[in-house]
Amino acid sequence: MNVPKSLSEQVSSATRLLAQPEVKLLGITQPLGEDATTVEQHIERAARLCYRTEGKMTASSSIRFLRGIILRGHESVLEHASATFRVLGGSRAYTHEQVRHRLLSFSQQSQRYVSEEDFRAVVPPEIAKDPEAMEAFVELVEHARRAYAQLKGLRLRNQDARFVLPNAVESGIVISGNFREWRHVIRTRCSPSAQWEIRRICGLMLRELQRHAPTVFGDLILDEKTWTVTHISETIGCKDAQQRVRKELAELEGRGEPPKRILRRLDDGELYRALFHVRRCLSPGCRETFAACGDLK
Predict the structure, then answer these.
(1) 189 is catalytic
(2) 114-147 pLDDT, tens per residue?
(3) Which of 92, 120, 145, 189 is catalytic?
(4) How far apart are CA 264 and CA 253, in angstroms?
(5) Which domains does the chain have, with CATH numbers?
(6) Buried/exposed 193-230: b ≥16 CB within 10 Å, e otherwise
(7) Which residues does 239 contact at the CB level (< 8 Å), separation at least 6?
């Protein structure tokens, strides 16, 4: 980021400031065999074994099938796929929040084996937009850098010198997790109440995951201005959702088909959104509408 001109003389060449993280997808589950060529088909192939319906799998069946799985809350099958990310430009404060998700796996830059004499510091947006706060921040970061260098000059080891480092210090980290856990992490950390840094980083992760698994993560709508996530069920009202589902049920009844066959229509995104709403909503009308769909387990 650009340091205000009034501060330029106070910032040493060793004090490097960061405003944007770098999130890179390092790897994602790749299936073997001719019957599955995408990560979503890989999940479908595993899940269909539960019902012995492997023979019904087609090149286009994964959208409808996976939407049905997610709608009904059978997310354990999503654990058959995983993704690995590398995050650079995130602060130590961010990583302390991220590693609390214990079902993920982490490899983090060590402050014992890596010298932090030329560390980069992450600047919070609220500090960056306030010249007075920015001046204080730069001064304190530079003071910490000099203190660290002084302790190293006294032949103290990294593991002891690091105690003067601020939470702002950059800490690289590699994170792996299955799709079920990534859905949980993203919903939790892209909440408006989450801190700005982890919200942005998890939003960048979601953007990558949606490129490779658009159905699995398609019910999560990302706002890249605020880096918050809204569930598709929250983007439709009760009246519209009930009408859409009731219309589909009436068409099924007219054809003499059972109501649970509504799951076969989940390639329709609007129906998927409406059905998700009536499933999650606690209003009497929505509960009655969802009950009319029959046993969708």
Answers:
(1) yes
(2) 999 999 999 999 999 999 999 999 999 999 999 9
(3) 189
(4) 14
(5) 1-29+81-231 (3.30.70.3180), 238-291 (no CATH)
(6) ebeebbbbbbbbbbebbbebbebbbbbbebeeeebbbe
(7) none
